[in-house]
Amino acid sequence: MVKINEETKVFHILEEFPESEPVVKKYFSYFYEHRLVDIALKRLTIKGAFTVLNTPEEEQKEFFKELKEAISNKASVNIP
After folding, report:
1. Dihedral class, residue 34 (left if φ above 0, else alpha if ψ from -120 to 50, else beta)
2. What is the pLDDT of residue 37?
3. Which residues touch 16 (CB under 8 Å, ≥6 apart)?
4. Is the residue at 70 inside a domain?
5. Within-domain flag for 79
6. pLDDT for 75 beyond 70
7. Structural domain boundaries enclosing 33
8. Has residue 80 been placed in a domain?
9. Where do the H-state alpha helices sit in 1-80?
10. Backbone dihedral region of 32: left (phi > 0), alpha (psi from -120 to 50 degrees) or beta?
11. 80 pLDDT band (50/70/90 cuts)?
12. Position 58 in a domain
């Protein structure tokens, strides 16, 4: 079972679950717009990326909710 939490690297989510890309792009658009995907998203955890962006806690919870919906067809995934 794959466990996704705030310590998971953003890159690993995209690698393991390509269907999560629209959700990742929505919440981490800054990195895409400034062409920092290779630098930032490969190195940062979800928590780290949210910290860099100063994302409110409520938005972070919404990210996990949307991510869970996007990859819900994978039965072996655990998202808080």
Report:
1. alpha
2. 80
3. 2
4. yes
5. no
6. no
7. 2-74
8. no
9. 10-16, 21-27, 29-33, 42-43, 46-53, 57-70
10. alpha
11. low
12. yes
